[in-house]
Amino acid sequence: MGRERRRTFLEGVKRWVDEYDVASQAKAIRPVAAYMGEDVLIGQETVDKAREMASHLRKAGRAQSTINNHLQVVKRVLNLAYIEWGWINQPLGDKIRKKTPKNERHIYLNAAELTLLMEAIPDARAVDKKVIALAALTGLRQGELLALEPSNIHGGRILLRPDQTKSGKARVVPVPEDARPWLHDLPFDTTYARLRKTWEDARKAMGRPDLRFHDLRHSYASMLAQAGESMTTVRDLLGHSSLIVTSRYSHMFEQGIDEIGARLPRLNATGCDQTATKH
Best label site of 95, 114, 248, 268, fewest CB within 10 Å? Predict the structure, then answer.
């Protein structure tokens, strides 16, 4: 009767998938859609259901990072519904808060360990080897790497569109010169399942069954910090939403902080001590 029909959350998911490349969030979309169900309408009902989902996952013992990935799917649909589709008249995505993971597990591989990892991957799995190496050299997530296409490559840089990133923001990442030839044949001719098998075999072969693919991203952040890059640079290269997220790596930026004074210019202030004493 003159009112616009209210859309369901699943309608939003379908439109998002139809209009954007969602490879970086594909693993979370399916379980979120299943939990939300067919009847949840876009609006406050979606927000309430998302909070219920987060509570359910927390009670089930799921990691906060996993819960955040699920909530990001809901936030993305709500943001699109408000900003682009005009389905709702207020930014309800802002009502969904993602908690910062506590005591998040961080494993950092150094250059020698990364070399061992590469040596553990047979040449017959060359494509997977390139993807794994690029994860360590660019900090890109697994989904971001597998979603790369020729249009993402500009000179020696990878340009990710907003729809290809977890944060929904564009990102530019430099690629080391010797790794650039690996990007000539995109997309990579592999699958999540094949890459996972290669990864599991490699970590087992080097005696590190505890490693996770995401540890390559942490290793990238560690190498940037050791190279003297600022926290803001690391934030931008990793695509973090704010420095609060990047601050989980803050301890790495403290390395060598005592040497900063030695790099400052020497200024002649002869007589300052005497002047201070007189006053």
Answer: 268
Q: What per-residue confidence (pLDDT) applies to 277?
A: 47
Q: Tens digits of per-residue pLDDT, 153-212?
A: 998 999 999 888 877 788 999 999 999 999 999 999 999 999 999 999 999 999 999 999
| Range of the structural domain that residue 241 is part of | 111-254
Residue 141 lies in a domain: yes
Q: Would you state the pLDDT for residue 27?
A: 83
Please check whether residue 29 lies inside any domain of the structure: yes
Q: Is 279 a member of any domain?
A: no
Same domain as 237, residue 185:
yes
Strand partners, 172: 159
